[in-house]
Amino acid sequence: MEAISTRLRTRVAIAGGGPAGMVLAIELGRRGVDCVLIDEDAAPPRFPKANATTARSMEHFRRLGISERIRAQGLPSDFPQDIAYFTRYAGPELARLPGLTREQARNRRAAHDDRWPTPEPLHRGQQMLIEPVLLDEVKRHRSVTLKLGMRVESVQRLAAGGLVHCESAANGQALDIEADYVVGCDGPRSKVREALGIRYEGLREDDRDFMGGRMLTVYFRAPGFYAATGKQRSWQYWAVNRECRGLTISIDGQDQIACALQLPPGVAPSREFAARGLVATMGAPFDFEIIGISEWTAGYMLVAERFADDAPQPHLLLAGDAAHLFTPTGGQGYNTAVDDAVNLGWKLAAVCQGWGGPNLLASYQAERQPIARRNTRFSYAMAESIGRLPLPEHLEHDSDAGRAARAVLGERLAEHARREFDIPGIHLGMFYADSPLIGLDASHAPADDWYAYRPHATPGARAPHLWVDDDRALFDCFGREFTLLCLEGADPQAASTLAARARRAGIPLEAVPIAGSVARELYGARHVLIRPDHHVGWRGDRLDDLEHVLARARGAR
Question: pLDDT digit string (tens) for 140-149?
C-alpha cells in the first residue's frame, strides 16, 4: 500500500541539519520566524568531522549565547593544543607550533592581544561534539519544527517559494513541506542545488602525495597513544615520511582519536589497511581499537556558480557545503558554513517580518560568494603546501645526511604551520567589498592579508572588538538587529530620537552610547551602524542621511 503524503506549511524550509542548517534555524528561531529543519539523520553524528571552531564562529556563538557550552566540548582545559610534525609519532620530531590550552585561551581573551583582537579565541573541538550543543539550542525555539530522520527526495521551485518532498528514512512515510523560502544546507549532493540546476565551479580533485584524492579517516580508541609517542602531548600529529603520510587529531585528550590516511590508487578502504596505517604512522606497535572508518575525497576547491535562484528576490538559496566544498586544510569548511548561516539568517528573518527590503536577499550571494572563493583559495594553497613537500630518500636514516634532511624539512614545516594556522586575517578580516547594502567604493576596500589583521571599521568589515569593562566586550552591547553606536562627539539624544522613529516604522534599531576616546578612534566616526551580523553597515559624523542609510542597509534601495 502506497504511503499517504502529509503536507506542512511554513515560512522557511531548511534542507540539512548540519552546522549551517542548525545555525540558520537558531537565527530564525530566536526571532520567532516559523521554519522547518529537515535532516536524514535522527541524531547528531557519532563520527569525527571538522576539528576546529574559528574565532569568528566563536564570536557568533557568543552572540547566540552558547559560546561557553561550545568551549566546554573537546579537550580537557589543561591539554596543550600544539600542532606537531614527525617522521613518525614515535620517531624524530621535525617541527612544532605551540598552541594555547583551553584555560590559557580563556585567560588570554581578557587581555589585550594586538595580533588576535577578539573576545573569543578559536576553539579546538570536534564537530561531532559541537553539533549536539547546536541541536539543544535549536530545540529551545518554539518557532522551529524539527523533522529528523526525514530524507529530502526532491525540491520543486514554485512561483513564490518551494515544495520540499521528504520521506522517512525509517519507514518511507512521505511529507511535503511548502515554504516561502527553501534553503539548501544539504551538502555536496544538494537536492536544492539540483532543483536550481546550479553547478559547482573550480577543482574537483587534485592528486597529491597527501591531502589529494581518496582519503580514509580512522576513528579509534587508544588510551596508550600519547605514551607510545614518547613526546609532549599535542592536538594534531602529522606523520611525514615516504612510506605513509598521516594526520592524527586528539578528540577528547584521553582515548578518542581520529587519523586521516591517504588511500593509494587501487587500494580499497578496509580496517586492515587502517590498522596498518595507524602502526606505520606511529612507527611502532601500540594498542588501539578501531571504532569506524570513512572514505572521503580531498582536493576540492569548489564554489557554486550561484548561491540562489535567479529571481530578483530569490526564494531558493544555498549555504554551507551545498554552496562551497573545501579540502579541510585550514579548517574553513564548517566555519564558512556558520558565517553563511548568520548572514542569511538575519536577512531571511527581516524579509519574513516585513522590514527587509526587496533587494535584501539578493545581497546574500554578493556578500558570501566572494568569501567562499577566498576561503577555498586559502584551503587549496595549504593543501598544496603540505601535500607536495619533497621528501628525500634518506629522511629517516640515522646518519648525518638524515639529520640534515630532517632539519631542512623541519624549517619548511614550521613555516607551513604558521601559514596554515596563524591566520588572524582569514578569521577576522573578512570584508564585504561588493555588497549592495554598503555602498562602498571598491577602491576603498582594505587589502586582504591572510596573515595579518588590522582592526578597522570601514563599512563592510567585521566590527572591531573592544573591551568596555573587565568581562564585557563591545559586541555584548550591540542590539539584536541594527545598532547605532554613538561614540565620543555624537548626539545621543538625536540618535535615540531617530532610532525610535525607525522602530515606529517597523525597522529594529537601537541607539547605544559608548563613552571614551578609544572606541571613537577605533571606529573612526561619531556614529556607526552595526548590522545584525556584526558587520559595519555605515559610519559618519552626521545623522542627516540616516533614513537613506537604513534603507540601503536593509535592502530597500
Answer: 999 999 999 9
Grid coordinates standing for 72?
Answer: 566546554
C-beta pairs of 76-80 under 8 Å, 24+ apart in sequence: 76/102, 76/252, 76/253, 76/254, 77/101, 77/102, 77/103, 77/106, 78/102, 78/103, 79/233, 79/235, 79/250, 79/253, 80/232, 80/233, 80/234, 80/235
Cell of 70: 561550545
Q: What distance in Å separates the CA atoms of residue 73 and residue 332, rounded to the nearest whole number?
A: 19
Grid cell for residue 239: 606523520
Q: Identify the residue whose cell numbers are 567604493.
A: 441
Q: Could you tell me the three cell numbers for 318?
A: 544555498
Residue 174 to residues 145, 148, 182, Cα–Cα distance (Å):
16, 13, 18
Q: Three-state DSSP class for 10?
A: strand
d(CA 342, CA 149): 25
What is the length of the chain?
Answer: 557
Distance CA 89, CA 474 (A): 44
Rounded Cα gap, residues 452 and 440, in angstroms? 22
Residue with cell 529537515: 38
The beta-strand segments (E) located in 159-255 are 161-168, 174-184, 200-203, 213-221, 236-239, 246-250
Q: Mapping DSSP to helix (H, G, I), strand (E, B) and coil, where does residue 518 land?
A: helix
Express each pLDDT in 364-394 by its tens digit: 999 999 999 999 999 999 999 999 999 999 9
* Entry pTM: 0.96
